[in-house]
Specification:
- It contains twelve helices and four strands, in the order ββααααααββαααααα.
- The chain has helices spanning 29-60, 64-92, 94-114, 118-144, 152-176, 182-201, 250-253, 266-292, 299-324, 327-346, 350-377, 384-436; strands at residues 6-8, 15-17, 227-231, 234-238.
- Strand 3 and strand 4 form a beta hairpin.
- The chain is globular.
- The relative contact order is 0.14.
């Protein structure tokens, strides 16, 4: 924890340490708590995502399309709140919004269970999505601000792995509890969120000054108090040296829409929306393909193999990006993801499907992680949280639009044709990525 003196924000309602620097290595207390809170939040999201559609159909005697709408309206709320995350955090502060978000996660599953009409369930899901978009942005910013600058890619990769743990564990537990009734699901989801709230109470969401940071314990109190500008829920100390910089004032150079979307992260977020279409096709129609080919109850095993592959490979790729830059991971990952989609298209056995899971893990799993690294390293440090929020805005857009496009493709060409089209699309994205983002990235340190 920093021992820096307390500073008051200019016009802000709370006191914020002026010169906070990360203590220890990568796995410091603040980073670990942010990862744990992230696991709890993403577990809750995907645990409910895997169960709420079936619950809606059974509870209200409606069609599958209505059940799907109840599931997907969460993403609508998330997209809206990601656009508003920056201004909301500037207005209310990071910690209050994080705590309110976890409280909403505790209450929402119980309201799902208590809802007496579909419209009420839709409303609760939308509000739940709003809470997720903002609070997940706060957690991402807190994690980034706890990572030493020389290990940013590695740290961001590990943080992305915490997301993956929640994403993989949620559906697995949800499917295992499918026959127990939604009351059990709601109570478990609320209990997990309560644990997340406890973790959030001890999280350090303060910003950190860009490295190298001085040893503030040995620096006497300066007569001048530096200004503190609050952006993206992270208050950044503006040092006196910044006034002497030849660069123009940030606010004067930034477009109006930069309050909602981080310009430096927008290109990668747009590419992320495109490659997420491929994964959305897997999530939406893999079960259909498994049933068509009589593979048995193997869909969940596919995602387990995928998750294990991603976790194992990120132990290497994070450090590799720190040393060689993001392109050394991104470009091969596009091709591996395309190969995984093509393998799904031709898989005639369970072993073939598991091979596809490995390729998808090496492909999409690394695209998602490396894309987040790019977004938080290509923007000013104090706006890293906004960069992460912008990136996930793109990912959410792709995951929301993907099922609609995939459904049309399946109707025209069947599930096999769907995965062939998606594989070709991923190959085409390689030069698009290079032109839009890849050629502008630095190689990294040698």
């Amino acid at each position: 924890m920093s021992q820096s003196p307390r500073r008051m924000t200019h016009g802000g309602p709370v006191s914020i340490p002026g010169r906070h620097a990360v203590s220890g290595g990568l796995w410091n207390r603040g980073f670990v708590l942010a990862c744990l809170a992230n696991i709890m939040m993403f577990f809750n999201v995907h645990f409910l995502l895997s169960t709420v559609a079936a619950y809606t159909v059974a509870r209200f005697a409606v069609g599958d399309s209505v059940g799907g709408a109840v599931a997907s309206v969460f993403i609508v709320g998330t997209l809206i709140s990601r656009l508003l995350a920056g201004p909301l955090i500037e207005r209310f502060g990071s910690r209050p919004l994080l705590l309110v978000g976890f409280i909403a996660f505790i209450v929402a599953p119980l309201l799902y269970w208590a809802s007496g009409a579909v419209w009420a369930l839709l409303l609760v899901r939308a509000v739940h999505g709003l809470a997720f978009g903002v609070s997940s942005s706060v957690i991402a910013a807190a994690a980034v601000n706890r990572v030493p600058g020389t290990r940013m890619s590695e740290g961001t990769s590990h943080y992305s792995s915490s997301t993956l743990i929640g994403v993989a564990a949620g559906p697995m537990v949800g499917l295992a509890l499918a026959g127990t009734g939604f009351g059990t699901v709601a109570v478990i989801a609320s209990a997990v969120s309560l644990a997340g709230l406890v973790i959030a109470l001890f999280m350090d969401v303060r910003p950190r000054q860009a490295e190298p940071a001085p040893d503030v314990s040995e620096v006497p109190e300066a007569p001048e108090v530096p200004s503190v500008v609050e952006t993206d829920g992270a208050a950044a100390v503006v040092a006196e040296e910044a006034a002497e910089s030849t660069s123009p004032p940030p606010e004067a150079a930034r477009p109006w829409w930069a309050r909602y979307v981080e310009p430096g992260a927008a290109p990668t977020a747009a590419i992320g929306a495109l490659y997420s279409l491929g994964y959305a096709g897997i999530v939406t129609f893999l079960a259909t393909l498994v049933a068509e080919r009589d593979f048995g109850t193997v869909a969940s095993l596919f995602f387990a193999v995928y998750a294990i592959t991603v976790l194992a490979s990120r132990l290497v790729t994070g450090r590799l990006m720190d040393r060689r830059g993001a392109n050394v991971v991104m470009i091969p990952a596009f091709l591996l993801f395309a190969a995984g989609l093509a393998t799904i298209a031709v898989a005639g056995t369970v072993a073939g499907l598991m091979a596809a899971a490995v390729l998808v893990g090496l492909g999409y799993g690394q695209l998602q992680s490396a894309g987040q690294v790019i977004c938080v390293t290509q923007v000013p440090r104090e706006r890293a949280g906004m960069g992460a929020s912008t990136y996930f805005l793109g990912i959410d857009a792709g995951m929301g639009l993907g099922p609609l496009l995939a459904g049309a493709l399946v109707q025209w060409w069947g599930t096999t044709g769907l995965y062939w089209v998606l594989a070709g699309f991923l190959v085409v994205l390689v030069p698009v990525y290079w032109l839009v983002q890849g050629r502008h990235l630095q190689r990294g340190r040698s």
